[in-house]
Amino acid sequence: MRGPKTPTPLEIRRLRRSELPTNTLKLARYLIGKTLVHDSPSGRMSGRIVETEAYPIGDAAGHAFGGETPSRRSLFLERGRCYVYFTYGSCFMVNVSSEKPSIGAGVLLRALEPLEGIPLMERHRGTERLADLTRGPGRLAKAMNVDKRFDGVDLCGQGALWLGAALRRTGEIGISIRIGITRQVDQLYRFYERANPFVSGLKRLRE
Question: What pLDDT is stored for residue 117 in this prediction?
Fold first, then answer.
């Protein structure tokens, strides 16, 4: 008796570094609607990026503000590198470096709309509640099984974790203040796809 048929992977084109804007705010907006893909040994997981936050050059709320250190080195690499850090003693956060080499800045990926590998994501998160699976940066990283192993990897390269092109037209993009920070709190550096149910935050920050 044959087992269940393996789903055919979506045809997702890998983004080239030349397509990424060399500007943190522009990159944060550009990434809305694009895809994050993890080709793990257990199978592919992917999702549409529906929420980001920019931490540009000189931003006191950004990790790069204190200068380059071994743990922050990935933020100072060429744009399109993955910067992963551990926070709140419980979760990882996935970021994309966003400027020229040696200039520290990045974009936090805050939420995904799950596309592929949902059963894997549910196993990693310990929940079958689809709406909460990848809504918020800590949930996103756990669902996609991304941790410090991926810090510094080239998201425009041929590795297991990568950025892909949009699979459909992106909806209207909203802009707001960032969530959960104590510095530079009034900056409009958060971007999201309006009315998407997978966007995090209060209702007024999703509409």
Answer: 98
